[in-house]
Amino acid sequence: MSEIIQPDEQNVQEKAPVFEQAVVNRTEQYEHKAAGFWIRFWAYTVDILILSSVGMLIIKPVFRLFSLELNDPVWYAPFSLITAFLFYAYFVLMTKFCSQTVGKMIFGIRVISKNGVKLTWSTVIFREWIGRLISTIPLSLPYIAVAFTPKKQAIHDFIADTLVVHEAVYDKKEKLVQEHTSVAKELQEQNVF
User: Fold this and answer.
1) DSSP assignment string, the chain
2) How far is the C-alpha of 165 from the C-alpha of 182, rounded, in Å?
3) Is the pLDDT higher at 170 or at 165?
4) Phi, psi of 157 (to 5 degrees)
5) Residue 99 CB neighbours (<10 A)
6) C-alpha of 105 from chain center
7) Tens of pLDDT along 58-88?
8) What's the rounded Cα separation, in Å, for the pair 36 and 76?
9) With b meaning 16 or more CB within 10 Å and e meaning fewer, what string describes 100-114?
10) CB atoms closer than 10 angstroms to residue 154
């Protein structure tokens, strides 16, 4: 005589087909508003004024004190090297430690990582040093990209995956969120004996 083995209830439920049900919810999210071309332009202008002032008030008097040449036409002249070092060190260090330069502080904007993590040294160096070297193309075309990109990014922002945003201004975005819930259909088998 052969035995008929019936599966227990747990096995039947585990093998039951699963149906997904999608629920759509509208949620409101706030995200920092991207800083546009003009506010970034004015912040950069303030930074250049600060760096020029430091050059005029500190570096030039030291060069004159030691009778060093200020107007040497070659690019590798000591005055040119020191001012270039000061320029890049200012932008790299201020962006790394404060996420903004003095000009950005005055206008209430800051540099953030696109994925929301803290700025790393490699990100800051790529953005402020290598990106700015690339941005020295005539007519400052890489900077003008800010006016035409959706998230107001310049070329050096694209290189480093960063954004420049307002600190206290937010955009309200509606987001549709789909939640999937699984519903197991219970199978009921009848005993036929």
Assistant:
1) -PPPPPPPHHHHHHTS-EEEEEEEEEEEEEEEEEP-HHHHHHHHHHHHHHHHHHIIIIIHHHHHHTT--S---STT-HHHHHHHHHHHHHHHHHHHHHSS-HHHHHHTEEEEETTSSPPPHHHHHIIIIIHHHHTTSGGGHHHHGGGTSTT---HHHHHHTEEEEEEEEEEEEEEEEEEEEEEEPPP------
2) 40
3) 165
4) -70, -40
5) 20
6) 17
7) 888 888 887 777 777 766 778 888 888 999 9
8) 35
9) bbbbbbebebbbbbe
10) 24
φ and ψ at residue 74, rounded to 5 degrees: -80, 150
* Amino acid (one-letter) located at 54: V
Q: Global pTM? A: 0.70
Give 81-136 pLDDT, tens digit per residue.
Answer: 888 899 999 999 999 999 999 999 999 999 999 988 899 999 999 999 888 888 77
